[in-house]
Structure formats: C-alpha cells, structure tokens
Write a structure and sequence with these properties.
The protein is built from six helices and four strands. By secondary structure, it is an alpha+beta fold. Strand 3, helix 5 and strand 4 form a beta-alpha-beta unit.
C-alpha cells in the first residue's frame, strides 16, 4: 500500500476534483489519476464514479476514505513522534529563483541571513521559471 496514493485520494475527496488535487500537489492530472487507478487495482474496486462531469465516491470509496484519512494522519503523527525522539529538528527553507536573481541577488541576501540564523538550512533551486510552469 502506498501512503502517497492514499493521501492523494483524500485530497481529491476533500477538494472535490482531480484538477484541484493535482494543482495543490504540484503534479499533473494524469499522475493523480494513475495513483487512484493503482489503488483501485490493488483493492479490485472502483473508488470513484466518473460520470456527468462530476466525481463522486463509489460505495467502496466511501468505505475506504475514513480509513485512508486515519492512515495518513497516523503516518504523519508517527513521523513527528520519531522526529521528537531523534531531536532531528532541522528547519529547511526551500527557495526557488530565476537565473538572474539566483546568481546576483540571492547570494548576498542568503549569506547575511545565514549569519543571522545559523541553524536554518537552505534548499535553493535556480533555473528558468518557464520550465517550472511547463513541468
């Protein structure tokens, strides 16, 4: 069983559409559909009724949804609990920037910021912004 697929099913149900779930997850609609179909194959049951332009839970989906929500929540809680035990609290700031800003503006700003906040780690992605919108 794939927790990410269960998370995706829950997001589709909560948001009411595959397209909204895809946008919020930063993945394509076919990727969301693929995760749903994998779960449907695993459970050998349709989770959604697809018709008349509206996506609604099937009977099997109605049974699975509360379990999926609980599994996702317990997964999150177990991760947080282990982080507490291992004291592995490292804050990572994810930053994305265009080539010009990433090469000329951010080095100085991030250098000053990291001196001020030495425990904060950065994850910097520099690239062509058009590529991020198309992928």
């Amino acid at each position: 069983m794939n927790i990410d697929s269960l998370k995706m099913v829950c997001l589709v149900v909560d948001e009411g559409s595959i397209s909204k779930a895809a946008r919020l997850s930063f993945v394509s609609q076919p990727a969301v559909t693929r995760q749903i179909r994998q779960l449907e194959e695993q459970y050998k049951a349709k989770l959604f009724e697809r018709g008349s332009g509206k996506l609604v839970l099937s009977e099997a989906g109605k049974v699975l949804y509360p379990y999926a929500k609980e599994i996702v929540e317990y997964s999150k809680r177990s991760f947080e609990a282990l982080q507490e035990i291992t004291a592995n609290h490292q804050t990572v700031l994810n930053i994305g920037a265009s080539l010009t800003i990433g090469e000329y503006l951010l080095p100085g700003l991030l250098g000053d910021f990291s001196k001020r906040y030495p425990d904060l780690k950065f994850s910097l992605s520099v690239g062509n912004p058009l590529i991020y919108f198309l992928s």
